[in-house]
Specification:
302 residues, alpha+beta, Phosphorylase Kinase, domain 1, D-amino Acid Aminotransferase, Chain A, domain 1, 2 domains, eight-stranded mixed β-sheet, five-stranded antiparallel β-sheet, 17 strands, 25% strand
């Protein structure tokens, strides 16, 4: 039974993402973070050992750090507290899973940017704007923005690439009140995390959040932060000491993987190539370094 590479739990599968397998437990969900890694919208055939544990435990850390800003769906990651039906899977789930509340997912990715990079940089060069937000002229790649900006995107399923949209388009989809609140929360969490990361000599260039709606005890709708939070898969972290404008700094994520795939001139179509052992080890080390520095711990929990 190989939990890392394929669904292996005798439970209803709620959804399977590129990295996470989510199981339906009724009012709750079980999220299991695999060691799969994706690049250019494809899940690669090679696993990165411990990647799932790193992402899982880093999200839990940030859920606790941000709970004063917004509620989140996290319940517990202690397998001893899981429902009885999960008892036989304890060893497989330990360290790489969490029990969360089920919410109605909001179909928009909420992206907060403090620096001009990635798709934001490409759009700025073409239009002088990012998701409809006008920016000063003459900015360089990776330059810090005067203020963090909110740049939403559609949440595409089935491996499709998310599409940047304007805040006005978001309001047409979700309504003005909810859109304004998600923008406020996203920028607030970005500022909180940016200050924390700067103390560890890391720069948070940008990050994306997902939110859901859950009924409160009085029947009112409440916003919950869901999925993952401030991980190398959802965020762009840079070394402060290596930062400079005009280039794309090396980030704490899949950079080794992307560089390798580019070096072998993969056409970004099947068949999907395997990664070399060297690339796997370098990628694992970079993810682990991010986790240890951000959380201030000495090792990854088993």
């Amino acid at each position: 039974m190989n939990l890392i590479s394929q669904p292996a739990l005798d439970l209803p599968l709620f959804i399977r993402g590129k990295v996470r397998d989510v199981y339906d437990l009724g009012e709750q969900l079980l999220i299991v973070s695999s060691d799969r890694i994706s690049a250019y919208d494809y899940v690669l055939p090679t696993l990165v050992p411990d990647k799932g544990k790193i992402l899982n435990q880093l999200s839990i850390y940030w859920f606790k750090q941000t709970e004063t800003h917004v509620k989140n769906h996290f319940i517990t990651a202690d397998v001893k507290e899981y429902p009885a039906q999960l008892k036989k899977y304890e060893e497989l789930l330990k360290g790489r899973s969490m029990l969360v509340w089920k919410t109605d997912k909001i179909p928009i990715e909420c992206v907060a940017r403090g620096y001009l990079s990635g798709s934001g940089w490409k759009e700025y060069r073409a239009t002088g704007k990012v998701c409809g937000v006008p920016l000063p002229s003459g900015l360089k790649e990776s330059e810090q923005l005067p203020e963090p900006i909110f740049t939403p995107a559609t949440k595409e399923e089935g491996g499709k690439h998310d599409q940047n949209i304007s805040f006005e388009e978001m309001k047409k989809i979700l309504g003005e009140t909810l859109s304004e609140e998600l923008k406020r929360i996203s920028i607030s969490i970005y500022r909180l995390a940016s200050l924390k990361l700067l103390s560890e000599q890391l720069i948070l260039a940008d990050t994306k959040f997902e939110f859901g709606i859950k009924k409160g005890i009085k029947g009112e709708n409440e916003i919950y932060l869901i999925d993952e939070c401030l991980t190398p898969d959802s965020s762009r972290f840079w070394e402060k000491k290596d930062y400079k404008t005009g280039i794309s700094p090396v980030s704490f994520d899949k950079q080794f993987v992307r560089d390798y795939l580019d070096s072998i001139q993969w056409n970004r179509e099947p068949p999907i190539p395997e990664l070399t052992q060297e690339i796997v080890e370098k990628t694992r080390a970079k993810y682990l370094e991010a986790y240890l520095r951000i959380t201030g711990t000495r090792k990854l929990d088993d």
